[in-house]
Amino acid sequence: MANVELTNVRKVYGSSVEAVKGINIAIEDGALCVLVGPSGCGKSTLLRMIAGLESITDGTVKIDNKVVNELGPAERDIAMVFQNYALYPHMKVYDNMAYGLRNRGMPKDQIDKRVKDAAQILELTQLLERRPKELSGGQRQRVAMGRAIVRSPKVFLFDEPLSNLDAKLRGQMRVEIKNLQRQLGVTSVYVTHDQLEAMTLADILVVMNAGSVEQIGAPLDIYEKPASTFVASFIGAPPMNLVPVKADHSGLVLKDGTRIGAEGLSIPATGALIGFRPEDLEVSAGTDTHIGGLALDLKVLGVEPVGAESYVYGIIGGERVVVRVPGRSTSNTDDQLRVIIPKQKLHLFGADGKRI
Amino acid sequence: MASSTRVTFPNKFLPYLLLAPQLAITAIFFYWPASQAIYQSVLREDPFGLSTQFVGLDNFRRVLGDPNYLNSLQVTVIFSVATALIAMALALLLAVMADKVIRGKGIYRTLLIWPYAVAPAIAGMLWLFLFNPSMGTLAYLFRSTGYNWDPLLNGDQAMVLIVSAAAWKQISYNFLFFVAGLQSIPKSLIEAAAIDGAGETKRFWTIVFPLLAPTTFFLLVVNTVYAFFDTFGIIHAVTGGGPGKATETLVYKVYNDGFVNLILGDSAAQSVILMIIVIGLTAIQFRYVERKVHYG
Amino acid sequence: MIQNNPVGRLIAHVILIIGILIVAFPIYYTFVASTQTLQEILRPPLSLLPGGHFWENYSAALFGGVGRIGGVGVDRLLFNTLVMALGIAIGKICISILSAYAIVFFRFPGRMIFFWLIFITLMLPVEVRILPTYKIMVDLGLIDTYTGLILPLMASATATLLFRQFFMTIPGELVEAARVDGAGPWRFFKDILLPLSKTNIAALFVILFIYGWTQYLWPLLMTNRNDMSTIVIGLRKMISFADADTEWHLVMVTCILAILPPIVVVVLMQRWFVRGLVETEK
Question: Which family does the UniProt entry place this protein in (chain B) (predicted)?
Fold first, then answer.
């Protein structure tokens, strides 16, 4: 077991394209760290630098307190699960799992024991003699996991391992990966662009954007206190509503000129964004103002009932917003609603997108 | 993964070692002789081989002004165009038919591909057995109808004979490509055309044939190159370039001038001209490959 | 299929059968001739059915003792041709797979230059540089040797390009997985690349074997001694329409023997060959 420490890690392609811009992350022994962000944010590059598949331009990568910058992937004692599984098509499941061990010169009986143990854990015992072609997507995924497990490495690296599965299977495998990682206690780094996967799997969540870290923390902390508008709109589905607001001499003005009560908010002169989660709005029956909350007028554009809840799409102060209402919504298109955001659920971001 | 981000092994020395055998063979047997050909094409050797002198583009000028050369250029063009057209038309017809039938596809294919394995020279001999005036059965049938068939004396008939043999051998190759091309046309397009009311013939000419264009074009280039070079054996075995110079193609003339008549400068100049022709054809082909990538 | 027109299909069958007859007839005719006596062959028209001299003619050609072409037996010619065809096929596959491996899976200075150096040879057949190449062979003392027959014909890029194209379809992840699994360049080549290339190798083998077997101009120039000649050249030397002594029935037998091996290879390995052919040239 081992910790992983990244210090000022940079990746520059060619002479000027900076894919990863000085990243610092410390992952404790046994923790599962998820790197999440939109495509092209540098998360995969970072993972591949930890794996030793990409060279490190600057900074250090430490595994188990040892700098591994100059080591090849096979010498870092890591195992990796790839997006497209990368199973060797001409080898049986057994050989796929055994290949890495054989290359390390492990005795045959030991290989056999490890492969069979891993197969047992992953319920692959019946499939050991098959070739990857003869397996379903979920089974291939398991084999890829198996290939990582048999090595009992210091670190597991996952590169969007579930992105090729259908939604149902993805949910199932997510739980399995989480349990397996807990059970084995191996430090893991997991890359995904799916915020739901990130939220549910992570011990530590790293939100990345354009080669930099936007925020690091426990998933729920990030959800509740996003450090920037980027994080606010990336984590959570539907994303947080963001309504621009300006302050003038007599109060607060929204984009379309609507004036609202200040409610003790201090808005910088350059303007700000008011943020609120779709589930944090209360729909008020009348026109009364709620004590300790921000009251806003919402014009309904449409309602989507999805069963357990309904999404009400509307406009506040010229900005589109979503409201999540439990059960069925009684609103109709073109209704005018008064909604109230409780003060403690209100997020405020400066013009630069940073949390105030 | 795009080729620019292709995953590779970090190794400085090994790739050169891996490339060495092919590079060595290419250098010794390709670049060295090719540069020799270019070098000799600007030299003139006296008849006794005692001295050589630099003559610039004289050899080219003489070759291109030589009626014999222009004749063989004409022969080559007629031969290549006729061979390519006949071989491709027959192959396309057979491929379209094979695409239509349900039973026996595999058997038809097996029975159609084997001429591919026959050496061009032998293909020529087979046709000569059939058509030579003294013992060929088909020649006998021709003559018994009163037709004066003698490809050994009549230049046009000699041309017909070698075109037949060359085209015959090439049918299998074209057939395989047309079959593959036809299979790659989405069935839904044909169905859409059928719903739009196009009959079978109309469907072929308005949908299938245009969509086959990449294959057709590719085969046109390949067949031309084949007719230029690979058919040397046919001509050498069947007509020897004759009667007269009626079937002397460019490649045959290079051989004849270089090895039989020993006019080295002219032969080298002809080699260089041939190289330029092939490079031109290759360039055309690559434009096509590029286009195909864009559409594909 | 849209049209389920039995008449159309019948016509298709008929046309295909005519096509097959055209394609097969010259070979069939030669086979028929190879089972006749010399006298029957010289007196056209020939019967359309095989004659009764199959064993007689074939054993005379194969084991006749007396070599028919300048004292060399057909067996020797077939052997020479086999060596040449195998040499070209195996040699070219070996050098090509290695160079394609270098070009696709490594990054090194000069990579693109080397690629183009090889690539340019793609469509310049030996015929266009025939005289200087011949001179080099004379200088190297390679006339009348197998090396001389084989090596120069290996200098072409087709196989390299096919392997390169195939290698480019191998996902980068597979390379990375192998690296994480501790496989270096050699292990990756041996354990992963080679097994995955099996069908390509088989297809190329067929194509190159036939290429080698059917060569004409090069062996014509490279061999002076009859015992180094190939079957195709030998056959050419046997034929003379002017010469009344030409033993046509044995020529026919030799002809069949010369075309049989490559036909067997093509038909038996049809599946790989067809795939390989269509893929190579794209």
Answer: Belongs to the binding-protein-dependent transport system permease family.
pTM, two decimals, is 0.83
Q: Which of C171, C183, C196 sits opposite A103 (nearest CB)?
A: C183
The residues spanned by each domain of chain A are: 4-234, 241-350
CB contact under 8 A, B258 and C44: no
In this structure, is residue C48 part of a structural domain? no
Specify if C258 maps to a domain.
yes
Tell me the nearest-neighbour CA distance from B227 into chain C, angstroms: 12
Tokens of residue C185, six digits:
């360049």
Chain C residue with minimum CA distance to A84 = C173
Dist. CA A295–CA C259, nearest whole Å:
92
- The fold of the A4-234 domain, in CATH, is Rossmann fold (3.40.50)
CA dist A295 and A311 (Å) reads: 19
Q: Which of A99, A115, A141, A152 to mutate to test the interface with C (most CBs of C within 10 A)?
A: A99
Question: Of A196, A296, A299, A272, nearest to A239 (Cα)?
Answer: A196
| ipTM of the predicted assembly exceeds 0.90 | no
Cβ neighbours, 10 Å, residue B63: 24
Pairing of strands B43-45, B52-54: antiparallel
Q: What is the CATH number of the domain that holds C257?
A: 1.10.3720.10
Domain with C136, as residue range(s), is: 71-280
CATH of domain A241-350: 2.40.50.140
Asked, for residue C159, whether it belongs to a domain, the answer is yes
> In this complex, which of A51, A88, A104 lies closest to C182 when CB atoms are compared?
A104
The answer to whether B109 faces chain C, any CB pair under 8 Å, is: yes
